[in-house]
Design brief:
- The chain is mainly alpha-helical.
- About 70% of the residues lie in helices and about 0% in strands.
- The protein contains nine helices and no strands.
- The chain is globular and about 60 Å long.
Amino acid sequence: MEDNPEVQRIVDVATRLFAELGFDGTPAELIAEAAGVDAATLTALTGGKTELYKAVMLRVHQAEMEVVGAALASIPHTLQGLTELADAYLDFHVRNPHASLLWMHRWMGDASATAELDVRYRGPIITMVADAVGYMVPDDVDTDFITWTVIWAVAGFITGGMLHSDHPPNWPNREGAAIAPEALEEFRTNLHSLILRMVSPKNYP
């Protein structure tokens, strides 16, 4: 679908609208208008709103897989390597906040008719991480839960920000401005600590 430059442009527009409004909140007519085509042309080029949404999610999935795959191929298989893997994932979503927004909409029940995409486009990443670094995780910890904890934490930070107990909040990026560097590094430091604690050998009293 995306070999056609006009289709590529429509997918770009749809990505922005689906990220902002969700699939259910984005009429096909709005996508067509924003892309500068009529509804009939939109359908002819993309197959319609649902097929266009699937193309958007496929592109996000492929980009995530590329980033995670490259990171797994280059990191040392050490505890430090696990934090570098998390950094690669975090930095991808900082550069591409629409990806976190699209997944957040899905987790709230958006596009429920395409529920199969959750398995198709999340399953491979979970499996890839588990196969590559699962042996490093203590027996009493589930690798899938660690991976999902990182996914949930990154998505929450990117889309919702956080309210601190003792200084002004870091609110989400609503106006296209970059996340404040100090806020990002504060989150990164705490994400590293979380990962290192989750994979530490058990030491119960």
